[in-house]
Specification:
Layout lengths: L3 E10 L15 E10 L2 E7 L9 E4 L4 E4 L1 E3 L11 H8 L4 H6 L3 H11 L2 H17 L2 E7 L6 H17 L4 E8 L10 H18 L5 E6 L6 H13 L3 E6 L7 H7 L4 E4 L5 H8 L4 E4 L2 H6 L6 H6 L5 E2 L13 H12 L3 H8 L1 H5 L18 E4 L7 H4 L8 E4 L2 E5 L3
Parallel strand pairs: 1-4, 1-5, 6-7, 7-8, 8-9, 9-10, 10-11, 11-12, 12-13
Antiparallel strand pairs: 1-2, 2-3, 5-14, 14-15, 15-16
Helix pairs in contact: 4-5, 5-6, 6-7, 12-13
The structure holds N-(iminomethyl)-L-glutamic acid and fe (iii) ion (FE).
Amino acid sequence: MPTLLLRNIAQIWQTYAPGQPVDMKTAPSIKDAYLLVKNGKIDAFGPMADCPDRADRILDVTGRHLFPTWCDSHTHLVFAQSREREFVDRIKGLSYKEIARRGGGILNSAQKLREAPEERLLESALGRIDEIISYGTGAVEIKSGYGLSVESELKMLRVIRRIKEQTRIPVKATFLGAHALPLEYRDNRKAYVDLVVEEMLPQIAGEGLADYIDVFCEKGFFTLEEAIRIIEAGAERGLKAKVHTNQFNNLGCIQACVERGALTVDHLEVVNDEEIKSLKSGDTLPTLLPSAPFFIGGHYQPARRLLDAGLPVALASDYNPGSTPSGKMQFVLSLACIKCGMLPEEALNAATLMGARAMELESTHGSISPGKIASFFLTPPLPSLAYLPYAFGSDLVERVFIAGEQKVDKRR
Ligand code: NIG
Ligand code: FE
């Protein structure tokens, strides 16, 4: 692959040296810089004074800022149909949980997914992958969880596998069989958890269809005991946990996840001091999804309390048809700053390096570091880093490069 040289970059952000510890409040950067890409990887970068004079392709990007692509570690972007009827129902006063209780919500998506042919699911999901790449995302996690039967969960995970094969960005697959209790199991919840643990999981793990396991631990969905059973069953099959928890209630699931070495705990709209203490005692990464409370109402994540306790946090979109029909990470950063009290540097670290860590991709993604994959985006001239979350309605992702190849150019 030929070399690519970008010259006159106004500022390169997230220039972490190998092994450099992350201080959430600091975003390392270099002004007036060059970046050299070789074989799809970051070969070198530094001040323009040291810029090489040769490369197969040279781009002058005067005034542009360069960022590593977003690492979106929590999405449900394989789905059959949008759910704007529920959106209107909420405007009229129904809550997200009430809609779910009446068989809407996740069960509605599961019904639609069961009816959808695999090819159509794949085509629409690939469209969403192109969409998020155009917003600057360069690595993504995708969950199952709209199947809720052996056949349909397998169908969803096979679609995710085909996405992995057909896109240039890394994709991690998470098995979320315990996303909601299907109506036919309403009087026999144990039978459904048995199905998840004893039938779905062995087949999925056997076919290597999932990288992680997830469960929605919440009143009206799955109990703490059920969540623990699922997390432990996943661990026995080598699947680390990334768990939906504390969206509406504190059920003790954060502590259970930390004790069992879960990779991440996600949502966290409600978090108490004991849970913060527990997170401090382990390596489980809190992952905040502020687009969900933006869209369905409720508390925003108490990011300030987590960060002030010295915890790292990741930010992700939660792209899904029910609680977050958007995969736009720039907007997630805006919400993190405006509604969760995060500083722009903290939001940037959370959406890049911490997002990478939330998918175990930190050795290849999440920063501009020598040897990492050359996935980055260029913005128009920016007055400051803060302008990125501040200008919440402007699309500041102008050109996107994935593994050294330009994939998107929105310059007018
Ligand atoms: O992360 N909270 C659980 N699951 C998804 C929403 C799924 C849906 O409503 O379809 C979430 O918000
Ligand atoms: Fe989610």
